[in-house]
Amino acid sequence: MNANAPYAWKSYFVVQADYQQWANDRLFAALGRVDADLLTSAQGLYFDSIHHTVDHILLVNRLWFARLRGETLVVDFAKITHTDWNQLIEATQAQARELQLWLEQCDDALFERQLAYFTTKGEPQQMWMRDVLTHMMTHQAHHRGQISAVITRLGYRSLEMDYVYYKRQMDAYRSEVAAIP
User: Transmembrane residues, as ranges (predicted)?
Assistant: First the structure.
């Protein structure tokens, strides 16, 4: 893929999925330096703790991924599905990889379709696939930002997770690889 060419929907979302993994990895690296007790204690987030917020990110990704594949998944956002922090991180990383692989295998026409699904309250809805995927990507960024603010407030350093830093790193990597004789 030409890095400077305009994106088609498929390649755009494959790159976005890769960016999500990159940003999550950076967040998890920063969280690895935070005292374990602080991950599960109340921090004033919508889902109260950092742990529950990361669990929510995973649960929402699983819910939307099931919908994308025409499956139904019953979720309870009040419950933490992964109580073990390391298992939660592994599951979140695995879910991100699974989504990216799925996107890579999708037909381009998928992004021009509408998705019919039911909300968690059982209400029927329709949404363009590209809008569903945009929601999935921005939802993660929204909560990563909240978590980053909390760890900064707690006196820990967060890492840059903005897309521009990902893009610069990927472009530098491509240039480095291209320079190999």
Answer: none
Domain count, the chain: 1
Range of the domain at 145: 9-178
Query: Tokens in use for 80?
Result: 């933490």
Q: Is 89 part of any domain?
A: yes
Q: What single string gives the DSSP state of each residue in 100-165? A: HHHHHHS-GGGGGSEEEEE-TTS-EEEEEHHHHHHHHHHHHHHHHHHHHHHHHHTTPPP----HHH
Give the domain CATH number at 150: 1.20.120.450
Q: How many CB atoms lie within 10 A of CB 63?
A: 19
Dump pLDDT digits (tens) for 129-174.
Answer: 999 999 999 999 999 999 999 999 999 999 999 999 999 999 998 8
Is 54 a member of any domain?
Answer: yes
pTM for this prediction: 0.91
Q: At 69, is the secondary structure helix, strand, or coil?
A: coil
